[in-house]
Specification:
By secondary structure, this protein is an alpha/beta fold. It has one domain. Helix content is 41%, strand content 18%. Strands 1, 2, 3, 4, 5, 6, 11, 12 and 13 form a nine-stranded mixed β-sheet that branches. It has a two-stranded antiparallel ribbon with strand order 7-8. Strands 9-10 form a two-stranded antiparallel sheet. Helix 6 packs parallel to helix 7 and helix 7 crosses helix 10. The radius of gyration is 19 Å and the shape is globular.
Amino acid sequence: MFKKTKKNDRPLVSIIIPHLGGKEILLTCLKSIEMTVYQPREVLLIDNASSDGSVEIALKQFPWLQIIRNERNLGFAGGCNVGFQHANGKYILILNNDTKFEGDWLDRMVEVMESDERIAACQPKILSLKNPETFDYAGAAGGMIDIFGYPFARGRIFFTLEKDERQYDTPAEIFWASGTATLLRKSVLQQSGLFDEDFFAHMEEIDLNWRFHLLGYRVVAVPQAVVYHQGGGTLSESNPFKMYLNHRNSLIMLLKNYSLANLLWIFPIRFLLEFLTFFYTLINLDLARMRALPKALGFILINCGKILQKRRGVQKIRQISDSQILDKMYRNSIVFAYFIRRIRRFQDLNFEIK
């Protein structure tokens, strides 16, 4: 089990909350922080040019808040990066503004990070705030990915959410820790680089966690810590812009992080899957998703030079081979497993990172 840290030896945790708007959800989150046991901590609210007066209201009720104002909306990635520059803690907690929690959840996560310097990031068990007995879409009990870049999670495959029956209450290695609530080791961020701001939002945490793995670090789930997430506060699942970002950023992530040898056979298969998705949306008259796919590919073609430059930067920091990375991925297609084999539960995949 993980070694506990003495209270007087506890490291500072910098809590970063990107915020675009929403008074009620923000106040609920800040009240939860106030009830959180862990100390020492600092709380940085990153105001991404909100216009609803929620930041001013929050500051009146919680004067311990540090407010960092951006002149425009930098997105989740850019907002967090601004927060990273102001964070003083050994650990940085990224927290969505529509989360709720209580008690010693953060203590549990810090204990895990303190137990092994090779752990770059960890996440709690994330449950739905609307349906607390069900895992949340954004991360559930720990993020996974297949070799073609499709993310899923312990407790969530595509649109199927499992009920929390304590089936994932054992600490486990995962591929990515959800940006909903993730604790990061600041010293590793200084090696890996920060979020890719061109992602704007969505997939940026998976891209970052991939770089952690390239550096030889671990990412783990801490189910003893529990966070509740409302979800959809900024962009709903059916939002066309969100669909576009998910497809675009996933493809860019593959182009940046795979070795050339693997990219040459994996990317064409992923492109074929995108092609099949396009025709599926066409048959089902899903016009929003249908438009998102060619738009994503168009962005990549127009910005291929910039993406190639980023790829070079990522490959320069590589410390381990793709054979070790692939051991942390689901080596089959999660698309095939879900839509053809009809697998709906993570545990039925018979997959774990060893």
